[in-house]
Amino acid sequence: MSNDLSGTVLGPAVQAGSIRDVHIHQPTTSAPVPRQLPPPAANFTSRADTLAHLDALIEEGRTFVVLTGPGGVGKTALALHWAHSIRRRFVDGQLHVDLEGFGTAEPVDVADALGAFLRALGVAPGGIPATVAEQAALYRTLTAEQSLLVLLDNAFSAAQVRQLIPASATSAVVVTSRRRLSELVPDGAHLVEVSPLPARDSVELLARTVGPQRVARERQQTERLAEICGGLPLALCVAAARLAARPMLSVRYVADELADEATRLTGLGVAEGRTVQAAFDVSYRHLDPGAAALYRRLSLHPGTEFGPGVIRAVATAIDPATAHRSIEPLLRASLLQEIDEERFRYHDLVRLHARLKADMDEPRNDLRTAVLTQVEWYHGAARRADEVLTPYRRRPAYTPVTGPTCLPRFDAREGALTWLERERVNVVAAGQVALELPHAELAWHLCDVLWPLLLLLKPSLRDRFEIHRRGVTAARLWGDAWAEAVMLNRLGRVCTRLGDAEAAESNLHAAIRLYETAGDVRGRLDAQEGLASAYLAAGRAGPAVHLLEEVLAGSRRLGEPRPLGLALITLGTALPKVGRAAEALPLLREAQAVFDGLIHIDPYNGVRATAGLAGALLAGGELPGAEDAANEAAQRMRALGAVHEEAEVTVLLGRIARRRGDVAAARRHYLAAIELFAAAGSPRASAVRDELRCSEESG
């Protein structure tokens, strides 16, 4: 069991070594109605026939629509326009996710999309189930009676979509994809092909941006420009932005430029349209040198979207004097999208174009420096958040190569945690990029700096496993045995929770050996406690208790309060399982005293000690004391928002009442626990129902 769980703990955290098959959840909270649709495109043009067809489908009750077509054809703009026109039909709100099926990174994991939807529907971060199957089941449960409009943008596959379909017959789903996704037809999907704009509508789109008078003056050249752009709204918008930014420029001039460069960047392929590539090339060529360099280097960003901090860091490395306004030329030229307040991304085709330009126009060493600048920025920012959230943690120093600038400052835990949650995908991606550079030391630090997020927000076990496994790989490439021990220790604990006892014990034994080699007593004791937890999970209570007694003795010699308190709790909760409840009582009371002195940084583990004491008193037959301790623990867990732990203590109250012969009170506590578990989406609700049934049959 991990000793890293210190500081003020928000939400659920379990360190009771003998509990098996536990999933930690938060209840559905009172959340606002989700209104996640991005705003419609300001220059959306026509599509009258397609919109009429979509309206007819919705009137017929066809509520599952897949919009398909090539990149840049305007599927998202069409989907948003239509979604806004029908959104009032769906009284419970709208959900939206960009599944990023055709970007330069991997498509969005279904678990991440489900997690975002569950949070939008009121499930607290700690209440997100560990597996995709459980997440999907909870999502179906929450949407079964709701009327929602769900927009799934840029889907890569049918499998990515299926888990995100709400269960209600009164909801609607709109999907956009470059693939036809005909596999969804048996699921009720209606495929709608989105074609390029006809010439008339293409001219109208240009007129909306550059002005009808300008188009009227050069109608023939405007029609020529529309034809060169192939009716693709993305290409038309880029060309129009060029014209809008240069009022004295003729349409003929831009049309000639696009025509001259239509054969460039053929590597993008005919299917994507050479005129789109030419439009990007023209816009790029007219950027000032600093903006062009920023355009190229930001395309190397590890994730798909980013905030202003990393932009300014890259821009400062190019020209500190203009860094504060460097992004504006890219926004004006429609080469960068502003998707939310202070959040930006490239369209996938634009990003590919920018990367190709980086390969052509940047020396190889400059490219590596640009990547390292961004990766080190994420480490520096995440480290600042880490230091606010877990100030007690041991962190080895890291000396950056690029000296990251424009790092955020966090005055409070809330801001640090919010930043870390928002940038989680980018920090994880930065770790992978660092490993590929290769820069193993930085890759390890980027894994380590995620610990507060893993501790407080409880992402899926799969994500935790991958982060720790990457940390082990990075430590080995770096050649740092202590760093490897840290990650093996964490990896072993995750394997315990995943039910892989063999891998858990192997990793934890290896961590113990490496800590011993490094002479780190505290680390060795921590890994030994983790190994004892693995033994308990595997049903080996005897060896677990023996090892925990060694850990407690070592912790007393170490003389550090918090590790001592955790060792007391772990052993105290394990002893009743081997018939030694009386010996557990003084240990758990001592743990209470230890955490009373640490309540300002770790209120959670003090409650764990009280809950453990209630269990030990029950095991020893001291029912009044057990009930008092359990009631106190339940109230304090409720105050902390630790719903799963509150439910477990409520089950304990049911057992105490059952031992007292109070069948009605036992039933009341069991039903309350079932309600809490169900609200948290925990499978423990079923086991408690069985316990309630046995209680009633025997009573």
From TrEMBL:
Q: Mind telling me which Pfam families this protein's record contains? A: TPR_12 (PF13424)
Instruction: Look up the domain of life of the source.
Output: Bacteria
The cross-references to SMART domains, in alphabetical order and at most eight, read: TPR
- Protein name per its UniProtKB record: Tetratricopeptide repeat protein
The species is Dactylosporangium fulvum
